[in-house]
C-alpha cells in the first residue's frame, strides 16, 4: 500500500513538473505567434527567414550573378527596413512547437487520469482492508496483517 502511495506521490510530482514545462512552452508559442497588427490573434504566416528567394547581384566585373538566400537575410543586406535583425538561421517553428506541446499536454492529461484511477484504487483497498479486519476479528493481529499484506501485494502487483 505504501509503495502505491509513494508511486502516486512521484507521479503527481512528475505531473506538476510537466505541467509547468508545458505552460512555459505554450507561453513561448503564444509570444512567437501573436499578430503584430492584432495581438488578440495569431499569425501563422511565413516569417521572412522562412521564405527562400533567388536574387541577382553583380560581381566586381559587373557580371550578373544569381544567388539564393532567405528574404530576411536579403532585407538585412539591403537595409530597407533600417536595423533588421535576423533570428537564428533556422529558428524553431512555433506552429510545430504548439502542436508538439499539445501532444505533450494530451500525454499529461492521460497520466493524470491514470493517477486518479490509481488513487481511487488505493481508497478501495483501504476500504477492503477495513472490511477484512472486521471479518477477521477473531483472528490474531499478526495473522490478519499477514493476510492483508499478501492480498495487497497480489492486488498491487498489477501496477
Task: Note down, in words, how this protein is organized.
This protein is mostly helical. It has 2 domains: 2-44 and 91-156; 48-90. Helices cover 62% and strands 9% of the residues. The chain has helices spanning 2-33, 71-78, 94-135, 141-156, and strands at residues 52-58, 64-70. The chain has a two-stranded antiparallel ribbon with strand order 1-2. β1 (52-58) and β2 form a beta hairpin. The N and C termini lie close together (11 Å).
List the helices and strands and how they pair.
Layout: H1 2-33, E1 52-58, E2 64-70, H2 71-78, H3 94-135, H4 141-156
Antiparallel strand pairs: 1-2
What's this model, at a glance?
This protein has helices spanning 2-33, 71-78, 94-135, 141-156, and strands spanning 52-58, 64-70. By secondary structure, it is mainly α. Strand 1 and strand 2 form a beta hairpin.
Radius of gyration equals 30 Å
Beta content:
5-15%
The helix content is 55-70%
Question: Reading side by side through the largest sheet, how are the strands ordered?
Answer: 1-2
Query: Globular, elongated, flat, extended or rod-shaped: what is the shape?
Result: rod-shaped
How many strands appear in the DSSP assignment? Answer: 2
Features:
159 residues; mainly alpha; 2 domains; two-stranded antiparallel ribbon; 4 helices; 2 strands; 62% helix; rod-shaped
Amino acid at each position: 500500500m505504501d509503495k502505491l502511495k509513494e508511486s502516486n506521490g512521484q507521479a503527481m510530482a512528475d505531473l506538476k513538473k510537466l505541467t509547468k514545462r508545458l505552460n512555459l512552452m505554450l507561453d513561448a508559442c503564444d509570444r512567437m505567434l501573436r499578430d503584430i497588427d492584432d495581438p488578440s490573434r495569431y499569425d501563422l504566416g511565413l516569417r521572412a527567414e522562412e521564405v527562400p528567394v533567388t536574387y541577382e547581384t553583380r560581381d566586381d566585373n559587373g557580371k550578373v550573378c544569381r544567388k539564393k538566400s532567405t528574404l530576411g537575410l536579403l532585407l538585412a543586406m539591403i537595409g530597407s527596413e533600417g536595423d533588421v535583425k535576423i533570428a537564428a538561421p533556422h529558428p524553431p517553428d512555433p506552429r510545430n512547437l504548439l502542436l508538439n506541446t499539445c501532444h505533450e499536454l494530451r500525454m499529461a492529461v492521460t497520466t493524470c487520469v491514470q493517477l486518479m484511477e490509481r488513487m481511487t484504487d488505493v481508497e478501495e483497498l483501504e476500504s477492503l482492508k477495513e472490511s477484512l479486519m472486521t471479518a477477521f476479528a477473531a483472528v490474531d493481529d499478526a495473522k490478519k496483517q499477514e493476510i492483508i499484506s499478501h492480498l495487497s501485494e497480489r492486488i498491487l502487483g498489477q501496477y
